[in-house]
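[job 4417] fold queue: 2 targets
>>> target A
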Amino acid sequence: MATPPTENKTPLVLVPVAFVGERVLSLLDHVGSILLLLVEAGRWLARGVFGRRVRIGRQAIVSQIVRVGVRSIGIVSVVSGAVGFILAFQLAPPLEEFGRKDLVANIIAVAVLRELGPLIGAIVLTGFAGASIAAEIGTMVVSEEVEALEAHALNPVRFLVVPRVLAALVSMTALAVISDVVAVAAALLVGVTVLDIPYATFVQNMLDQAKLVDFLTGVGKATLFGMLIGVIACGNGLRVTGGAAGVGRATTGTVVQCVVAIIIADLVFTAIFYALKLV
């Protein structure tokens, strides 16, 4: 008589370790798949730019820029303007105690150009476009449209991922500039009309404080944020399983992962810029 197989049960003491290890391995697997997707998209983009036999559809890129970027301008402007108002109102009372209310312009110029402009645009774009990209590609996976592309020898990364990543990258760069302008303009409006700071003083303080490197570092971070949003959204969409419920999970996961990735990337680059004496 054959002996029944023995069950391989994890000791109770090691259950938390196994749980944490499983989560860490799952996280590393997901991050690795995103990085591989980014490398693959970069390879196809390089072949499209430098090669003659591979073409990246310009019309697809333009349509994605319109859908991802142009349609986000309104909500980014509203949020950025509100943040500019809030900063001006919040900074004025403590600075007035020292008799330097005019320094509101100095602080807002640096805070918006370095951090808040790109960060606001990235978070808004994550909710507005990142989730949409993940849901769109996830629906194509569920409806087997991606398999149909592969059956016709059409690479999904080339035709689906590259246009969306490029659109997110270009749109995020432009949205960061728009966010900077709107936030500073809103703060200027409050400073001149409510806080009684002379227009010339406000503008001069901003110009004295803000440097070109502040603007460039902010725009550079925005470009990275756009790339992260695009590749994470596309990666989650391509990994969808489980029908409509899987599409919902991918959409929610995309928003959470993009926000976390943006904050961590912002932290890393701010530390690098600080070490290089750029901030």
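>>> target B
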Amino acid sequence: MNVKVRFAPSPTGYLHVGGLRTALYNYLYAKSEGGEIILRIEDTDQSRKVEGAVEQLMSAFDVMGINFDESPNNEGDCGPYFQSQRLNLYKKHVNELVDKGLAYPCFCSSERLDKLRKEKQTQKLSTKYDRHCLSLSKDEIDEKCNSEPHVIRLKIPDSESITFNDTVRNNVTFNNAEIDDQVLLKSDGFPTYHLANVVDDYLMGVTHVIRGEEWLSSTPKHILLYNAFEWDVPQFAHVPLLLNPDKSKLSKRQGDVAVEDYLKKGILPEALINFVALLGWNPGDDCEIFSIDELISEFSLERIHTSGAVFNQEKLAWMNGEYLKNLPLNKIVIHSKPFITLDINTEDEKFNRVIDFSRNRVSYLTELNDEIKYFYSHQLENHSDKALLSEASSQSLFKFWVTELSENETWTPETLKALISKTNDELGIKGKNLFFPMRLAIYGECKGPDIPSIYNILGRDEIINRLNSVIIG
């Protein structure tokens, strides 16, 4: 069987990290099976559509490296499917069900339905529709169809239950008595999610439906539609919810949930992909760092968990730090530049050296400015430890180093360590009495990188200039 999956978001705003995970699992499964993944925009609810949302989604996926297989849209171009451009298809298929007696028009007003629902709630009964319009004669239906707004409902079969296999949850059973005669076509001519979802999945050849567990309760409705159309049912896999640390459903109220938010914070796309992949899935061992190719190689639907996955911000920060340390330097430099707010040259070799050093000391790209500023600015006027610079021993230390550094153009970590030993021997200055004033003079803080690391970034001439600037007289 040729595997084909889809990701089908609504254009209602940003890409939620839960949506990213669903798209990622679809992508990993398709690629691991040599199959295809298509993008479908479910925009039939026009009241919820947000301008620019599709472009935001596409941009986010582009940054994250998730590429959908090209599919011709209704205008003959390559791009995502838009359900709003496929209305005639849905009407055609719902009319087939009406002709077969498997669906029926409903003319009940919203006022009647609200009243019915409240009455049943008072009586503690199921709030299902009472099939009032199912008893209408053909002549009554024809007359009302020409003059009254109406919806089309699916007539739920009288069988006792429906059971289906879910790759994540094994066999799942729902009682048909609990399933409402769902609306398939709304009075404005737009399909509901249920109808459009099933028609599109079938016509687009989707073999596996991988989606969030919030859609689990909708699955029997979808299977009943597949059966009504006499179509083969795809394989379902419902992935667990993402949770806050308190085990509540991940929501904006308790922190960032948009992919864009994490990218703006300075989370690397590669790290976010890796982190999200492990929210509800693992390869069966303790390994935690995976490239996208390794994820494709390891991924299987059977290893998706059934319990909710906690979105641990500290774990994400740790993982991002690991990627900052280990990705090729040129990639980190490219990712870093948009986050640099200092007025510096980000195109020279010094910037590369600064990033190569600083990436080992941060968890987010947004933290880089505080790390790199010492290599570009030497302002000590208001420093709380400024008095340390004017002490006699410090002044002797600075003059000694200027003389020594000036005599040799090339210094290595080994020769710098030898100079530190020479300073101990000839000046009797060592330990923090050497490192604190020296670091403050050439770096800007008493505590920080070792002196060879600072030298590697600033170079001899800049070190000498900074030492001269603090020498008195």
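[job 4417] complete. Note on B: The chain is about 45% helix and 10% strand.
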